[in-house]
């Protein structure tokens, strides 16, 4: 689904911006604004570099209020109570995921299936956990740890539900100064804004990347690197476009080398670049991802847990609209993002894993691929709430394995660009040949496993 696109500035947008330059900062709405309805947040497109006063004046004139503005990419985050705010701005310039969710409250969402799949199974007891980390052995992480555990100069951003920085395996890794809450679409550096509330998803992801607890025998892939908690998941479990935009820009402006993105942007799952509303969300996220890549960030994303070929999908399971080649699951559809499928204990594709347009694969578990007794559960083990450990299955768990290996590569190659790091990830992966009729391609590049299973040991030697 990845495709190269130029930065788009619609002709209508240029005229709006140009006209806005002459508008007084005190411009008032032409009609009275709604002051009682529920407000919703929107991403709003501008020409990159547009002055802030232009943004403020237009939003005010059209019954909106600025929440945040990213002039580098020409994306504003606005709040409005007016039901017609997007129409006032232009449906190809403004989109609200929250409003879309509220207007389709009765729809059947794939979110419930994802939550069930990635539910935590807590591991009891105080014994050594190393024998249960079959996922780490699969990518040769224990051997890699003996060579290089990663550099403290490398920061990996975990764009997720927040990281429990008090967990004994994560306390030394989490860098509070690089962490932020992005749920509103504007960065908030207060610890409460980036701490988890009701989801341990981000904490589990973080442990896979860089956890280390000698007392329990638990070790992640790159325990020597720093982690930044960038909270983009709200308490209802949604990741809206404005939160993702904030997260990618934050990563770009704070020197992250890698980000992990174990989610798709809601309420998707597919956004279409030629569809009104969708087009604004698609372009806002695209600009943010491309900006971060140009600033040296390698973005890694989970392929998704719907079990289909994303290149052949013609419908969106979350929203009733057709899907074609102009559509993609965000952020993984954006050029330059490393997309990760999942394998289970036996090394074959997880039954739930999406496929097609895959860069590499990594362990994400499978309920049908069970390790031998004493070797753990079918889902990867990692850190969870209250200093504990538990297992989760999903491409969400596969993606941080790749982010951890990418962090090791960035530690070894401090000046490598995201493109070079991607090339190294793919070149050093262990080829996995197709093993099903629906899989297509050679062992070195196929629709199930991409360029193969990532190898942490090759990354450090």
TrEMBL record:
Residues 152-452 form the Peptidase S8/S53 domain. InterPro entries: Peptidase_S8/S53_dom, Peptidase_S8/S53_dom_sf, Peptidase_S8_Asp-AS, Peptidase_S8_His-AS, Peptidase_S8_Ser-AS, Peptidase_S8_subtilisin-like, Peptidase_S8_subtilisin-rel. One of its GO terms (molecular function) is serine-type endopeptidase activity. One of its GO terms (biological process) is proteolysis. Coiled coil: none annotated. Keywords: Hydrolase, Protease, Serine protease, Signal. Gene3D superfamilies: Peptidase S8/S53 domain (3.40.50.200). The active site is at 160 (charge relay system), 201 (charge relay system), 396 (charge relay system). Residues 1-27 form the signal peptide. Pfam families: Peptidase_S8. It comes from the Bacteria. SUPFAM superfamilies: Subtilisin-like. Belongs to the peptidase S8 family. PANTHER family: CEREVISIN-RELATED, PEPTIDASE S8. This is Serine protease, subtilisin family.
